[in-house]
């Protein structure tokens, strides 16, 4: 019988900064009921990371995928990545720019979706993808760039492994193009957002209202009346100015 969900924490640079260390510690603490795995490059020195939990499993991939976030995008568009964790039904990808507000992971795994993440910031997706021409021909490169930039530091998503692999197999040519588009920021996010369901609903995704209950960019929380499962866009440069973190006890 498969595990319901495993939590995957990608580590690009093992020399994490104090904010990333805070996010990691919180992740280990609040999600301690689930299998948690560090994903990093072969030969990475995880001594600082493992100070938080020396018994956590590590899965390694070639170093070429961990030079930059753009390189990680390529890994997240490969069948091999998802198939390496086929003992689980779902993966929660948790980069160190995200914060779990409340442990509702089991609940979200049971809602019948294949792919959930926070909406991109200021992307105007409806305007860019509306109409028969964008659906048939795909987005123009400037529109793809805008969507990609809107996904900066949006590093948390929950996905059903089987459906991700099947989608990549059915979109093999498109996935190849996205993996090798070096000028497209966050190419994995753009692919899953606009390409995966362009001709056929390969992935069951939530409505925008439900999406906001799953995760939101922390920048958008100032006017929010309810807290989602998770926040993204949490960085060393902004954490002290984010209203949600200003309200937390110092111990958190």
> Percent helix among the residues?
25-40%
Strand order of the largest sheet: 3-2-1-4-7-6
The CA-CA distance between the termini, in Å, is 36 Å
Instruction: Name the structural class.
Output: alpha/beta
Number of helices: 12
- Number of DSSP strand runs: 9
- Please give the largest β-sheet: 6 strands, mixed
Pick out the low-confidence regions: none
Query: Which strand-content bin applies to the residues?
Result: 15-25%
Mean pLDDT: 91
What sort of overall outline do the alpha carbons produce when their principal axes are compared?
globular
The run of helices and strands is EHEEHHEEHEHHHEHHHHEEH
User: What is the C-alpha radius of gyration, as a whole number of Å?
Assistant: 17 Å
Question: What's this model, at a glance?
Answer:
By secondary structure, the protein is an alpha/beta fold. Helices cover 35% and strands 17% of the residues.
Describe what this molecule looks like in 3D.
- It is a single chain.
- The protein is an alpha/beta fold.
- The chain contains twelve helices and nine strands.
- The strands form two sheets. The chain has a six-stranded mixed sheet with strand order 3-2-1-4-7-6. The chain has a three-stranded mixed sheet with strand order 5-9-8.
- The longest helix has 13 residues, at 18-30.
- The mean pLDDT is 91.
